[in-house]
Amino acid sequence: MGKQLLNQCQDCGAWTLSTKCHKCGGTARAAAPIKWSPEDHHAQYRRRLEGVEGEGWSQKLPTLPDMTEEE
Ligand SMILES: [Zn+2]
Predict the structure, then answer these.
(1) By the 8 A CB rule, do 28 and 8 touch?
(2) Ligand 1 centre and the CA of 36: distance in Å?
(3) Which residue of 1, 25, 41, 62 is 20 to 30 Å from 34, comparing CA positions?
(4) Where in the chain are the domains?
(5) How far apart are CA 67 and CA 58, in angstroms?
């Protein structure tokens, strides 16, 4: 993982690039990384809610109009 440069002061909340606050001299710590995952942990619940795994779900999906044209 790359080094996280942006730190936030524990005392006044100011953002700084060093570990020492330039405003109040307090200790600045790396901001917590945004929790993000490529996995959608709630996907299985949402699918269940929408009945994706049930019979007939695919029939409810919108379909494209038939593009085949007779010449
Ligand atoms: Zn500060």
Answers:
(1) yes
(2) 28
(3) 25
(4) 1-30
(5) 20
CA distance 49 to 69: 38
Q: pLDDT tens across 8-48, in order? A: 999 999 999 889 999 999 999 887 666 667 777 777 777 88
- How far, in Å, from the CA of 1 to the mean position of ligand 1? 26
Residue for token pair 């200790």:
27
Residue 41 identity = H
- Please give the distance, rounded to the nearest whole angstrom, from the Cα atom of residue 3 to the centre of ligand 1: 21
